[in-house]
Design a protein that fits this description.
heterodimer; A: alpha/beta; Rossmann fold; 2 domains; 7-stranded mixed beta sheet; 6-stranded mixed beta sheet; 13 helices; 16 strands; about 20% strand; B: about 325 residues; alpha/beta; 8-stranded mixed beta sheet; globular
Chain lengths: ~375, ~325
Amino acid sequence: MMEITEGSHAVAEAVRLCRPQVVSAYPITPQTHIVEALADFVANGTLDAEYITVENELSALSACVGASAAGSRAYSATTSQGLALMFEVCFNAAGMRLPIVMSIANRAMGAPLSIWNDQQDSISLRDSGWLQFYAEDNQEATDLHYIAYRVSEDPAVLLPSFVCFDGFILSHTYEPVDTLSQEDVDKYLPKFAPPERLDAKDPVSFGMYATPEYYLEFRYETDRALKGAKDVIAKAGKEFEALFGRDYSAPVEGYSLDDAETVIVAMGSICGTVKDAIDEMRAEGKKVGLLKIRVFRPFPTEEVAMFLKRAKRVAVLDKNISLGAKGATVLEVKDALYGSAIPVKGYILGLGGRDVRKRVIREIVSLVEKGQGDQFIGLRKEVL
Amino acid sequence: MACKTCELFDSGHRACGGCGAALAARLVTKAAGTDTIVVSSTGCMEVFSTPYPETAWKVPWIHSLFENAAAVASGIEAALKKQGRKEKIVIMAGDGATFDIGMICISGAFERGHDFTYICYDNEAYMNTGIQRSGATPYDASTTTSPAGSHSFGNKRPKKDMPAILAAHGAPYVATASIAYPADLMQKVEKAINTPGPCYVQVHAPCCTGWGFEGDQTIAIAKLAIETGLWVNFEMLDGKITRAKKVVRKPVTEYLKTQKRFRHLLSQNSRMRKLLPYRQWQTGTPRSTGSISNSRKNERINHFFRGFPFYLYHQDGNMILQHDLS
């Protein structure tokens, strides 16, 4: 059913339809509307879940760890500082192979304190073993929750997922969103039935201690499962398309890519702006295209290499920076294109909610055409 | 349901011979029985009981992190409720995980009122990392981060009063126990498990390696702690003390002299010997801390006896509780 709704509320509705049994979250801007909406569902009997109002984010995700290990579908949502407080638990949940799904309303990291959007928070946890999905709009943000539970809980994967959507830009924006019915979601997402759970009838130990003789193999297996998740996403995405008409089977998506000489690589809501800028530039005869990255972990290295192989130059937009090095996406893209002669330049932009407009995209295209890049975009003059 | 003949914490684990915590795990699981899920914090017990691929736990067991056992237990409880399951949840965490790093998670979980039993096995320091002081370390104990030296008596602060903190959260049942009194310990654990809501049992679990004594002395030392009044076994129901073990108190030196961590206090040449009020210890008149002492000597004595939700004093050779137990 098509509805004009706020991004957070659309996400909360999608989460409700996924029937989590335990919801555990702590308020933080700009995620708060999601957890408020879920509390409202529980209070009014439209979501049959235990809702734990924890005292901080570390406990929010820790309670999900307990719930998931006990065999219940668990959900949380956070952003920025809250996610940073969960750092330790994120690695732990992935290591214990607990398929928790968590929404991230992406926000900058302090200091200085900023409640506005960039993707530094979830990118900083790229090594934690979670799948990372990034949404361009609120339709994608909702749909990716169904996909995330389906993929995370697949016995071949059993790893947790972040569903990332840009704070404020998506979370607080009203857009038309097609919400599925409960019947539809039940058809798509089977009941959570993990192969192992905490159960007195069949005792197992979770989260043991591994000596150097065993630890390496745990990491190998987790990495193998995360890389293997790509095939599971493809299958789950195809099935989703067959049922509901929207295709999320590929980890990347091209826009005006076929004959593109300059390709912009981007992730999240900025892709909408990039598409508009491309339409304008195409009308002027410029051969520009977009490669949107929807799945950042597992990183679609082969797909990126394949889609970019005919490009003359590549401009990678990063709403994050690995301080002292480069943006996270440009490093991945350079890795994917290693050995090719295609020049790849990185652009750091939009940090802490700085607006990115079509003219900024056009400016980046002219920079990459001149071979200039690996720089911040739109800095105030006084710092230069 | 309790199973006194069950061995749910198996032998063959990697604890030191004479480990008080291992005995605590064995007694607690007997009292808890098979329908139990155990949540451990990071620490000695977690490490010595689950070196992959072996586990000593014959009940379902989970360890997540150092500080979050109470939060993990909250999630398990919510899941069991939703699934209509009846297993009991028992947390087994050390004093570092309980008194220090886990305080926020514990406070949150107790305030929310989840139904679990939190057992703190209290060996009075961070033993797993090599005997560093914690909020549970007794006054003047020498540890690797509070070493006694020419300018230090050892640990500068009295033991934190965890039972009172959790009673103040509205915990319906709070108790202390000792591995030297297994029947009492198991009875208290069983009572805690059968009391709805978050309950707390703090178990004195001497550590031969950390305290500096031979492994065959563990029980004797745990007993001495009670007999000298440096550990008090009691029960609190809804914040009121309802039962406490009374003793004819022995001089505290009887306890202190058994352990290396207190050796500096008893050394004949110690600068501290002049400063510390040994005569009072031996004849035993630690004063009630109902009023604040202006005497440094008395302050030191009182610090020794702190860490419990009431203070003790000695009268006619018997330990009297400040609170009225009638």
